[in-house]
Write a structure and sequence with these properties.
The chain has 403 residues and is an alpha/beta fold. 38% of the residues lie in helices and 14% in strands. The structure holds pyridoxal-5'-phosphate. The site of pyridoxal-5'-phosphate (PLP) has 14 residues, from α4.
Amino acid sequence: MADDVSPAKPKRGFQTRMSHTGRATKQQYGFVNPPLLRGSTVLYPTMADRKALGAKRGERALTYGIGGSQTHWALEDVIAEVEGGTRCAIVCSGLAAVTTPLLAFLKAGDHCLVPDSVYGPARNFCDSLMTRFGVETTYYDPCVDEAGTAALMRPNTTVVYTESPGSHTFEVQDIPAIARAAHAGGAKVLMDNTWGIHYFQPFKHGVDVSIQAATKYPAGHSDVLIGSVTVNSNADWQTLHATVRALGQYASPDDCWLTLRGLRTMAVRLKAQMEAGIEVANWLSHRPEVLQVLHPALPGAPGHALWKRDFTGACSLFGVVFKPEFSVESTHAFVEALELFGIGASWGGFESLALPTTGFLTRTAGSGTFPGPLVRLHIGLEDVGDILADLEQGLAVMRAFGR
Ligand SMILES: *Cc1c(COP(=O)(O)O)cnc(C)c1O
């Protein structure tokens, strides 16, 4: 019975835990899955009940909709399990999972270190709202080492933000080294771990707060926007949770329920997509049109040694740098010619995506410059043979387009 399965048994395999965590069969009328609970008002039988529940505020008590319900809490438990943390807060989007802990762990007068390769909307948040509220951001080379991080620390540096590999350019960060320098300077380490997901265990490598755009592989079907923030200590939970509540952060229970459903199959989807992604990346690395494939799991690719040391697998998102003789316009012709790849943002769904990214990159610390145009690929669950055939005909269109 699911009730008897302890979600806290770390010796059990990932696939087992994804099947059994967050289920309480006896409390869900015997059904396999928890019911979807919707609601704003919670009715109290008596005033004494109201007082008793009110005293439990902050814990998992049904007092009012915004505090969440069993639907949210089951999802929190499963994501905490995925990342190896103690507590998790579910928020309305991946971007909210980025901004909420920044607001929780920074205050006016503080200084924040952010990698140059950070997800674009996170940079926008630092440059707009955080600046307006008196937080200064320094963008740093994502490939910085421990001494380099220490040199960037100031007495008022309270957050060292990380994202590994970096958005669009896939630089793998030396998280343990960065975390040592950050902690020596009294700062918290925040990490956007969307790419690594279960394959990078943030709390084993010095991260304090782990961010997931659960929109990606956890939801997994390109039909939900949702985010999670996971911590590994009670003190960090108190700090985070206070800000989650102050902001009125909430995710629809329908979206939580869909994400829970997605998570039940995430381990097998991830494994299949990892294998397909590596096969496609390897195939591309041997193509005459390609200068470099930015896939950390590919031997010889940038960041491969750090990936091998710190990750146990890879997702299916990577970059392709074409030779300089190809124009940005020819990469547009390439993605438009593809039949199985949609042109679109986001990733982690069951379907393949292609996105020319050269024009999107904002870099201010000198990182992420490549001699040729860049395309980001997300490999879905289609047959690999069909994907390769599609890429082959797309590349022929690209060559014919001219340079
Ligand atoms: C997509 C993404 C986000 C934001 O997630 P949304 O749910 O789309 O808001 C944050 N970080 C990374 C690395 C992402 O790829």
